[in-house]
Every structure is written in structure tokens, then in C-alpha cells.
């Protein structure tokens, strides 16, 4: 978001909101969502509880905003990676690498999302999961369009581009999950060439 042309007061408000979200990520990651109070978040962010409530009406809405803000940022960056100019295989390489960079930069929230969101089961959490799924589905469709172009270019074999995109996502997610479980034994960045090799060997023109 470009804030340079915003009034100073609005820029300050966005900065304060970001500080609250950063404090929430730290506390949720340290103690788990259920074990953190609004009062603790306010103290960590060095705001009053009243000031925090001026941004978020509840802890649930704060968490929802946290997850969705990061999901939307990731979505924008990954769409940009898929829409870069170049050969289809090079675009996919950049996309696979960017997924890893985003995962690494937001490891605390990723761990929190997988450990807490799906377990909470509230309507709010269901809404969060649904929105994240919508954004993810759009990325799969964009990846499918890149693969379809690769088929036309003769780089990939004939096949359903959507199914091929789903297969690529499955490989990426499997390696991301391995890294999440064993970060030192299964570093994602080191496995990017492996991911591409597994996918491209199956998709390359024969």
C-alpha cells in the first residue's frame, strides 16, 4: 500500500495498527491464540486497551485481520510472480522460489495458522479459511494459465493445465510442510530445484 500521499494522521493510524498486529503475532506464536488476552496484546504493543479496541472490536476480529492482511499481501506478490514476462518454465521457477521467500518471511504466522485456525472452529475462523481458499484458488488458476501458455510454446506436454497446476501446488505444499516440520533437515530454498525437477520432468514436452 502506497501511504506517501495519505494525510499524516492516516499514516500514523496505519502504523499503529501494524504495531498492534505485530504484537499479536508474537504473542499468539509464543502462547497460542486461546492463551492470549486483548490486555496482553495492548501491553506488548504499548497501547491502551481502549486504543486497541478503536482498531479491532475483539480478539477474534484482530486475528481475522491479521490472517487476511498477510494472505492478501502474499496473493498480490505471487500473482505478480506469475504475471512476469518470460518463458513459462522461467515464470514457474520464479513463482516456486517466491512461495518459499514468503513462507520464510512469515514463519510465525504460518505456524500459527496451521496450529490454531483450523482447530478453532468458530464461524469467524471458517470465514477466514474460506477467504484464504478463494485467494489460493485464484493463484492456481493463474498458474494454470502460465502452464497453458507453456503447452502452446511446446515447453510442456499436452494435458489439462488446471490439473497440472494443482499437481505443482501439491508438490510445493508438500515441501513447505516438510520444511515446517523439519526446517534444518528440509530447507525449502535448497529444495526448490528438486520441486522444479519433479514437476518439469512430468510436464516437459516429449
CATH superfamily of the largest domain: Tetracycline Repressor, domain 2
Count of the domains = 2
List the helices and strands in order: HHHHHHHHH
What global shape is seen?
elongated
Count of DSSP strands: 0
CATH class of the largest domain: Mainly Alpha
Level-2 CATH architecture of the largest domain: Orthogonal Bundle
Q: Can you tell me the CATH topology of the largest domain?
A: Tetracycline Repressor, domain 2
In DSSP terms (H or I, runs of 4 or more residues), the helix count works out at 9
Query: Largest sheet, if any?
Result: none
Quote the beta fraction. under 5%
Structural class estimated from helices and strands: mainly alpha
CA-based gyration radius = 20 Å
Layout: helices, strands, pairs:
Layout: H1 8-31, H2 38-45, H3 49-55, H4 59-82, H5 88-105, H6 107-120, H7 123-153, H8 161-181, H9 188-203
Give your account of this protein's structure.
The protein is an all-alpha fold and 206 residues long. It folds into 2 domains: 1-56, Homeodomain-like (Arc Repressor Mutant, subunit A, Orthogonal Bundle); 64-203, Tetracycline Repressor, domain 2 (Orthogonal Bundle). Helices cover 79% and strands 0% of the residues. The chain contains 9 helices and no strands. Helix 4 runs antiparallel to helix 5 (88-105), helix 4 packs parallel to helix 7 and helix 5 runs antiparallel to helix 7 (123-153). The longest helix has 31 residues, at 123-153. It is elongated and about 60 Å long. The protein starts with 7 loop residues before the first helix and ends with a helix. The model has no long low-confidence stretch (mean pLDDT 86).
Amino acid at each position: 500500500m502506497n501511504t506517501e500521499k495519505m494525510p499524516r494522521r492516516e499514516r500514523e493510524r496505519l502504523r499503529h495498527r501494524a504495531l498492534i498486529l505485530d504484537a499479536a503475532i508474537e504473542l499468539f506464536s509464543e502462547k497460542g491464540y486461546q492463551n492470549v488476552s486483548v490486555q496482553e496484546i495492548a501491553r506488548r504493543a504499548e497501547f491502551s486497551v481502549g486504543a486497541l479496541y478503536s482498531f479491532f472490536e475483539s480478539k477474534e476480529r484482530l486475528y481475522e485481520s491479521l490472517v487476511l492482511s498477510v494472505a492478501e499481501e502474499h496473493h498480490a506478490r505471487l500473482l505478480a510472480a506469475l504475471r512476469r514476462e518470460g518463458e513459462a518454465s522461467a515464470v514457474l521457477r520464479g513463482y516456486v522460489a517466491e512461495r518459499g521467500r514468503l513462507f520464510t518471511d512469515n514463519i510465525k504466522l504460518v505456524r500459527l495458522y496451521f496450529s490454531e485456525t483450523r482447530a478453532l472452529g468458530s464461524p469467524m475462523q471458517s470465514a477466514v479459511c474460506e477467504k484464504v481458499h478463494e485467494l489460493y484458488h485464484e493463484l492456481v488458476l493463474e498458474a494454470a494459465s502460465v502452464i497453458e501458455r507453456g503447452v502452446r510454446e511446446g515447453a510442456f506436454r499436452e494435458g489439462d493445465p488446471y490439473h497440472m497446476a494443482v499437481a505443482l501446488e501439491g508438490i510445493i505444499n508438500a515441501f513447505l510442510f516438510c520444511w515446517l516440520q523439519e526446517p534444518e533437515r528440509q530447507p525449502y530454498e535448497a529444495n526448490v530445484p528438486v520441486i522444479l525437477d519433479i514437476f518439469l520432468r512430468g510436464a516437459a514436452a516429449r
